[in-house]
Structures are given as C-alpha cells and as structure tokens.
Amino acid sequence: MSAHCQLTGAKPGFGKTISHSHRRTSRRFDPNIQRKRYWLTSEGRYVRLTLSAKGIKTVDSIGVEAAVARIRARGVKV
C-alpha cells in the first residue's frame, strides 16, 4: 500500500536523521495512513478508502458523500 491519502493528498516527506556525532542519513516521514471502509448510500455499496488520520476526521465532519465527491474531483477512481 502506498503511503498516500486519497482525500488530503498527504504523502511522505523526506529528510535526514542526524546522530549525536552529526552524521546524516536519509529518512522518510510517512503520514498515518489507514484503509477504511465506508457505506456509500447513493450507490448502495461500500467503498474502501486509503486515508490519513486527518482525512478520516475530514470524512467524519463533511460526510462520506462529499468526501467521495472531492476524491473523484481530484481524478482518483473510487
């Protein structure tokens, strides 16, 4: 599963880990991605979305129908 949120577009950030001796090594900051299943009443089926924690909170506040509409507007197939 790719670390990419379908709703917010959150994806990994990249940077460096700096040790005590100040050696720098590459690292990756992954968003908190979860796969969640929602009932879509307009289509009478479940949809499985790959969302970040912030994306889940957004779905809770705006509703599943509006969230799926936003995802489809971004060009992502649901």
From TrEMBL:
SUPFAM superfamilies: L28p-like. GO terms for cellular component: ribonucleoprotein complex; ribosome. Transmembrane segments: none annotated. Keywords: Ribonucleoprotein, Ribosomal protein. GO terms for biological process: translation. The keyword Ribonucleoprotein applies. Signal peptide: none annotated. GO terms for molecular function: structural constituent of ribosome. Residues 1-26 are annotated as: Disordered. It holds the Pfam family Ribosomal_L28. NCBIfam families: L28. Belongs to the bacterial ribosomal protein bL28 family. This is Large ribosomal subunit protein bL28. The gene is rpmB.
